[in-house]
Design a protein that fits this description.
single chain; 70 residues; alpha/beta; three-stranded parallel β-sheet; 37% helix
């Protein structure tokens, strides 16, 4: 019984952080001061809006990019 209890008990502390709609300067500042780098960056997506440099910058930092529809 004790071993199954360990499997479902949540870990303490933050495992992952995410950010949403950060601009290039905000992301740069965050990466300079943060002790824990964001795991995911979420952008609002629209057919008329493209962010190739933002996508590239996040990929270079190892940050996963996701989008949501505006």
């Amino acid at each position: 019984m004790a071993s199954s209890n360990k499997l479902i008990r949540p870990r303490r502390g933050t495992r992952f952080k995410g950010i949403s709609d950060f601009g290039p300067s905000q992301l740069h500042t965050l990466l300079k001061i943060a002790k824990m780098k964001p795991y995911v960056h979420q952008f609002g997506a629209h057919i008329c809006l493209t962010f190739p440099t933002d996508l590239e910058r996040n990929q270079n930092e190892g940050i996963t990019v996701t989008t949501y529809c505006l």
